[in-house]
Write a structure and sequence with these properties.
The chain is α+β, with helices and mostly antiparallel strands. The protein has helices at about 20-25, 45-55, 90-110, 135-140, 155-165, 195-210, and strands at about 5, 10-15, 35-40, 60-65, 85-90, 110-115, 120-130, 145-150, 170-175, 185-190.
């Protein structure tokens, strides 16, 4: 049975065409990085996936990306959401192109999946067929390698990762031990694209079973 998709909303966007030198120092920008694109998103992992996609479509680098404690339900304001992402590039046009990639990915390319009607129980089982500079650096792998990006609530994340690792020839390259800032957990797995797909499917199936039978062991 197909699970209902949950997409992210980009809540606020601003472009800084020529960043102040003092602020540039705080983000440790390279001399050629003069422009910034800043956004907030209602879903952090989709935001990170979108940032990685931006590095493949534009001459941009991710210079800051953080989740907010407690998640979107406990955000500091109506435009805060669950995370903030900042990209740097040599010109306003480049960071705008990167922002267009973020918007497209958030609107249609990456999504959580709801395990219940209320959409209060959800997982992220996303396969990146070819990583950009951001996720490859986060995972410690070569740029362009496939990646299974697997996220779920705490217990589900641990159980699902075990199922994913056993289902395919994949390697756990980054573990997000629960609780994360948003009280989830998970990991990044790498292998062939087909292996990453199989791992993501095993993750999804294992956690769907938990949602149907939470106390059965």
């Amino acid at each position: 049975m197909a699970l209902e998709r949950i997409y992210a909303d980009i809540l606020a966007i601003r472009i800084i065409p020529n960043v102040d030198d003092e602020l540039a120092k705080q983000f440790k920008l390279e001399p050629h990085h003069r422009s910034l694109a800043i956004f907030t998103s209602t879903v952090d992992d989709i935001g990170y996936t979108a940032l990685d996609e931006a590095t493949k479509r534009a001459e941009v680098e991710v210079v800051y990306a953080r989740s907010f404690y407690g998640g979107a339900a406990h955000s500091s304001g109506p435009l805060s959401g669950e995370m903030i992402g900042i990209m740097a590039g040599p010109s306003p046009d480049e960071v705008k192109s990167g922002m267009e990639a973020v918007l497209q990915t958030s609107e249609s390319g990456a999504f959580f999946e709801a395990l219940d009607v209320e959409k209060s129980h959800a997982i992220y089982a996303h396969v990146v067929s070819r990583t950009g500079t951001y996720l490859s650096k986060e995972a410690g792998i070569q740029q362009g390698e496939p990646l299974a990006y697997l996220i779920a609530p705490p217990l589900e994340a641990v159980y699902g990762l075990d199922a994913a690792l056993k289902a395919a020839d994949v390697e756990l390259v980054k573990f997000f031990g629960p609780p994360s800032e948003t009280n989830f957990g998970g990991g990044l797995l790498t292998g062939s694209q087909s292996a990453c797909q199989a791992a993501a499917e095993a993750f999804r199936e294992a956690i769907t079973d938990i949602s149907h039978n939470p106390a059965r062991y």
